[in-house]
Amino acid sequence: MDDHTEQDWNWEFYEELVEDVNENKNIIQCIACGKCVGDCPASKVSTFNSRKIIKKVLRGDKSVLKDSDIWHCYLCERCKRVCPKENINIPMLIINLRNEAFKKGYGPRYSDLSKYVEMSERFLTRGIVLDEPLGENLPQERIDELNAICDFARIKYVFKASKENHKSKRQKSKGKR
Predict the structure, then answer these.
(1) What integer pLDDT is reported at residue 16 of this predicted model?
(2) How many Cα atoms sit within 13 Å of 158 on the Cβ side?
(3) Could you tell me the pTM of the whole model?
């Protein structure tokens, strides 16, 4: 991954993540080809860049835990399917980083999260982020898993509040007529 000397890397953070989730050991194989970012629906609507996240992890830069980017990933596994290297599981790394962020007391900022609520809801309910579809529909098992993650992260609460706020505004505008 890029041209760097051994001094540029700090393996401690990487080793912690591997100890937590053994599958994370494979991120060291990343060749920074960019296919994961090019096919990523989250990168089309946000600053999400899985290559930058992997680079931060390998450099031992724990500021990645405070970054908004780890909350923009839709966990759709498109990156995993297009990666030319075997067994690099970026969604698993993202889930691990989110868990570590929660342990340290960090989480998504509401301003960041609210900006993506509509797109996230569209993705979870219809499997699309943009007008162009992601390819094939997500299997029900994957949708259920994403819904469980959203329940944990209280995103469903945001969807519900957003829908109720929309409904309330429509009722108010009807009352003014």
Answers:
(1) 86
(2) 21
(3) 0.64
